[in-house]
């Protein structure tokens, strides 16, 4: 097997315990070939719970950059990718200097700080990459606390979750960005997630762009980690809120900002883009109206 220099891209924001658990699981990986090296590039978006300080203390090899709390996840991941490219950032032993030595990485790994990788996850992802070839994206399926698949590749117009196949990689159309392995060849073809997207949609857009560029995506045969994530805040679906408040929330950066949603619809859902553009806002208004009538 050729040398593997892995640049791991992560972001964090006020989830110190989860971030530290994710890094500990990353450092506990087994089954990697002796020539494989890691460099971790973490961008912290204005944490006030001591996340950057704790990471520097307990995981000194991790390169930590602090940015403002107004930097959303997708843009923070772009910064982490840029950091991995400045000076190489390919990786090294976890006792080395932050960011790893200045050699060229062969792969990027997107890793959500809420995911605890299974001990053989990286070996499985790299093995899948060898199977499907350097021109493909490898997606790791992530389990929830109940054992069901919560993040994975996506398929079809409905973006249905793709379950890992167990014996061979499963093709998908796009992917959730929790655990994604990109070879350098794919990165040079597709690039980072698009800067137009702030918090959501950037990973789905990246997957569709990769496919159009000739880089297929596959879900690794077995799940690679678990995400014991707290339930999402109700947002625009919160019962009892008025129509105006519901529309304000659905149009926020945490859900579907209209400009970003239009870019996504225009790129990937034409000729249905005009209809799909307005449909989530119309559904939100209708749901809030009916909810107020029932209270």
How are the elements arranged and paired?
Layout: E1 5-12, H1 16-27, E2 37-45, H2 51-58, E3 63-67, H3 73-85, E4 107-111, E5 116-117, H4 121-132, E6 137-139, E7 142-143, E8 149-151, E9 153-155, E10 160-161, E11 170-172, E12 174-175, E13 179-183, H5 184-190, H6 202-212, E14 217-219, E15 225-226, H7 243-250, H8 258-268, H9 273-294
Parallel strand pairs: 1-2, 1-4, 2-3, 6-14, 7-15
Antiparallel strand pairs: 4-13, 5-15, 6-13, 7-8, 9-10, 9-12, 11-14
Helix pairs in contact: 1-2, 7-9, 8-9
Enter the CATH topology name of the largest domain: Spore Coat Polysaccharide Biosynthesis Protein SpsA, Chain A
Shape: globular
Number of strands: 15
What class, by secondary structure content? alpha/beta
Region (Disordered): 80-105
Protein name: Glycosyltransferase family 2 protein
Biased composition (Gly residues): 86-99
Q: What's this, in brief?
A:
With about 300 residues, the chain is of the alpha/beta class. Helix content is about 35%, strand content about 20%. It folds into 2 domains: about 5-225, Spore Coat Polysaccharide Biosynthesis Protein SpsA, Chain A (Alpha-Beta Complex), CATH 3.90.550.10; about 235-295, no CATH class.
